[in-house]
Amino acid sequence: MRGAGPRISRPAAGINRSSYREAPRAYPGRKVDILTSSIRNRSATTACPYPMDKVNALRDTTRVSRLLWLLAPGMLVALVVLFYPFRFAFELDADEGVNLMKSLLVNQGAELYTDVWSDQPPLLTYLIAALFRIVGVNLTVVRLTVLLFSCVLFWAAVQYLKAFWGTNHAIAGGLILILLPSYLRLSVSIMVGLPAIALAMLSFLAISYWHKDKKKLWLVLSGFALALSIMTKLFTGLLAPLFVAGLIAQEWQGFRKTGSWSQFLTPGVLWTGGFGITALLTGLLSIYPDGLSQLTVTHWTAQQTEFSDPTSIAGYLSESLPAIFLAVIGSVYVLQRGRPTGLYLTGWALAGFLLLSQYSPIWYHHQLLVTIPVAILAGVAIGEFLIAIRDRFRNLRPVSVGAAMHVAVAVLIPYFAASSLSSSLRELDYRLPNLRPPAADLREIEAVGMLDVMREYADATNYILTDRPMFAIWLGKPVPPEVAALTGKRLLTGELSQVEIISAIQRYQPEQVALARFELPQVEVYLRQHYRLVYHLTDHRLYVRGDLQPNSPNSSPGGGD
User: Fold this and answer.
1) Could you say which DSSP state residue 548 is in?
2) CB 471 within 8 A of CB 454
3) Does residue 6 come out as left (phi exceeding 0), alpha (psi in the -120 to 50 range) or beta?
4) What pLDDT, on the 0 to 100 scale, is given for residue 213?
5) pTM of the model
């Protein structure tokens, strides 16, 4: 019957009737957008509306962009290799010599924790020992290996920001990371902290990807990476409860709806399995049973020991105040945007600060445990500010929380640049120092002077006892394993006494004894009776055994890289 039901106009010429007839079913009771139907139909039967050369160009641009982001750590490598004076440095930190000597002794057949005392987990020690087996005692290669860890850390931080926030955030976070106090120095210092944090950052990146696509493999990889991290340095263990709590919180809403225990527990079980199995196997193979007390008792005793002129973590973090203020704003953005992965970073920074506030002694390199997540959160704040500038602050009320945060970021950016950029630039040498030696400071001049004297007796030397093991490393000589880690913490906690040092001298009869860090009056009394002093400049003292003779004129002066 005419007039019954909605009236539908005849399709215009050239419009496919089938698509025209399907439209009323999709939009009952409404007029059909003929042009939209036509375009939709043609798109299924005709070529792409864009010329193929443009499509290929877009694909090529995307590939190039991905490649450039993968190569982003190359900027850090170029900066450090060309302009940071590490290649000719005698020693960048006293811990370098300790870590290297433990690896040298392990490479020569000593057992870590059984023969060689160590209060640090074993992973980096065994890695350096493997390098020594391949390339010999070469400081440059080991320092470049630490730089590789730094590149991993940098890459993981930038990839997280790019994947979860944006390009502006990634660029800002990467720059702040490089400009953190002591970051460039620690990128080539043979120490355990930065490698451990690099592995922890990989763990964080993996668990963040799980939040994005729910692939279970990310959970296993995240647990595996964090286990390797704590096998490098224990302080990253604080992330384990944070990650488990994040997984529980993420699945809680789903559990309240479905009541499925299996779905609720699976992520936590997978992560804990990857973490626990890796940590257990590594610990059983390399730590248990001799290393347990060394990894725990010394650190515990140190908390009850008073150290002279201690610096708190708050004192070291005062150099990073602009970045910390930016990180606070970044945390607010995390809450506003509802990004659960960003909460891991906030928890990481807070937990790291609380842990180090209760720990003693604190050294400058410990601050990275706090400043690394701070740098990423600061990158979030600056990235959001840059987006607001690009959008010309559209829909932003002059009086609002967002406007206040943007103003704060605008003030903090020059504050950060003024406080951090100058100190970082002072660490660099623009004369390409790794092609020629830079000017040495007074303490290094003293050390090199004593090293030259030690080389005169290198041919007849089998063992060197020293409180600065880098001397022995440069000569390629071992120290008595019991005193390979002759550190201030070990002396002050009473774990190593001067009587035990004298006992090691009597047992191994080292041809040279080089002291440069600590006052050891009982040891020096013994040395004056049985050794002769051949070098003394300020706090550097070199004793040689009475029967030791200098190298012959035609012999090699000894020494490594």
Assistant:
1) -
2) yes
3) beta
4) 93
5) 0.86
